[in-house]
Amino acid sequence: MVPAGLMANIANVKGGEVIGPIAGEGEFGIYKISSVVEGKDPFARAAHILLPKTENDKADLDAANKLYEELKKGKNFEAAAKEFSKDPGSAAKGGDLGWFGKGAMVKPFEDACFNGPVGEIQAPVKTDYGYHIIKVLDRSSKKLVVEKIVKKLNYSPESMTLVRRDAEDLLKLAKSEGLEKAAKSKNLEMQESTPFTEEVAAVPGLGYSRNLVAFAFKEGLNDFSPVSSVGDQFVIAQITEVNEAGVKKFDAVKEDVTGGVIRQKKYAMALEVMNGVKGKIGNDLAKAPSIDKNIRFGTADSFSVGGNIPSLGVDYAFSYAATKAELNKVTGPVKGMRGYYLMNVKMRQNFDEQKFLAQRNTIRDQILGERRQAAFQQWMETMKKRQK
Known about the structure:
Blueprint: H1 4-7, E1 18-23, E2 27-52, H2 57-72, H3 77-84, H4 88-91, E3 96-101, H5 107-115, E4 125-127, E5 130-152, H6 157-177, H7 179-185, E6 202-203, E7 207-208, H8 210-218, E8 228-230, E9 233-235, H9 250-281, H10 288-291, H11 316-324, E10 330-335, E11 340-344, H12 353-387
Antiparallel strand pairs: 1-2, 2-3, 2-5, 4-5, 6-7, 8-9, 10-11
């Protein structure tokens, strides 16, 4: 997968150029641009601020227009996206959506990106998600032929200890100053999960962590979790809402029930459409948007079952279905978090048991080393506190 750092400068890339090292997702790479050719299909890179829709469309448009006027007068777009945008995937990046082709976005958004001026902030555009304030960062039809040398990142026990120590310091600050203030002091973005039950194994939007799920149902409102590891991240969690078990009054759940029914109807309609489209496209997914303008087409170069899916985000149903799908054949419809998907899996790297067995002892020793180092560091911190 080509990293965002290389894609961000695609307009200036030349054939024969060697670029890097550039950080990618869990790796560093050096990239040689063998050639640059002009393709037929344009791509756009855009940033946006999403103001979600409510029941009052006029108020939504007024709020979007107010922010748009402030941006035209010089308000920083990236800062505004981080503060106001309700698209969590892009908000932390200043609204940047990266590069995408036609068919990847809903039609009104796509039209603004491929027809609007580059570098200018556009008036609010309405979609089913709400109002978008869009800034087209670049457009290009260039295609790169790339050779690469990639080095995967493996964190040493010492590095993990330093990161854990920073996380422990952040936890202390959060307990005294509040989580939001602590996060801002370290230029970190807070992330709020949706409600979940005690039976789940994953925290929505974060990933698998039975420890954090157990903490959430053992402790009380506003309590902080100890520093927890989730994948290759250290996480500090706070319980911000507790919903008591029982039957709520209808007025209290009316809005949620209405939204749930609407979502079910949309899913049912989407399933019907997808089944119809599947019968018309043969084995070519790229034809789908030409049959129904509401369908988006995109590609994901590589992803793991529990990881982020490029241009889509985390969707366990989608990634699990990809592990079971027959190669080079359109599969689906698959029900995911955001709708129904048709997929065509081109390549799948299965678990290499022989490679694992060959590296098992090394992996075990590395994990034990990390654990020993972390335990020793915690013991040292405890001893220091006792001596004060």
